[in-house]
Design a protein that fits this description.
This protein is mainly beta. It is built from 2 helices and 11 strands. The strands form 2 sheets. Strands 1-6-5-9-8-7-11 form a 7-stranded mixed beta barrel. Strands 4-3-10 form a 3-stranded antiparallel sheet, with no helix packed on it.
């Protein structure tokens, strides 16, 4: 079982997100107050910290010093278990992973690894998510 280590939102796309203590995930919409929310297949971004192992050593300092670009940062679940189609319960909410990475990779700061290893998907069940909440893979 994993856990939530950070929650982050921004009103606009393309800017660093601000860390918040809790978020409200809304079914079919995304994270309340976040610029990526809406009726599409990348409503929520989830970044497993285990993906940092894939950052080249010459990029690590840059990636770690960059601000958050994902909504939910998690730890404790293997990347191999977070595939397209995987359904995860995070706090009260349920999210289905529909994409790994982005179509176009970013080359600088935290987006470097999020664009390659971030998990993107939709909220399939509304609920509150708090820092420290459990994360677990579920069957639907």
């Amino acid at each position: 079982m994993g856990k939530v280590v950070s929650l982050n939102i921004s009103e606009k796309r393309g800017v660093e997100k601000t860390q918040v203590p809790l978020v409200n995930a809304i079914e079919g919409f995304g994270i309340e107050g976040d610029g990526h929310a809406g009726a599409w297949d990348r409503q929520v971004s989830v970044f497993p910290v285990e993906a940092l192992e894939k950052v080249p050593s010459d990029k690590m300092e840059e990636v770690k010093s960059g601000g958050f670009t994902e909504n939910i940062t998690i730890s404790g679940i293997s990347l191999d278990d977070l595939n397209v189609g995987t359904v995860i319960q995070i706090g009260e909410a349920i999210i289905k992973i529909l994409h790994i990475g982005k179509e176009e990779y970013k080359e600088h700061s935290r987006p470097y690894i999020v664009s390659r290893e971030g998990r993107f998907g939709t909220v399939v069940k509304s609920g509150k998510i708090n820092i420290g909440d459990s994360v677990e893979i579920i069957e639907m």
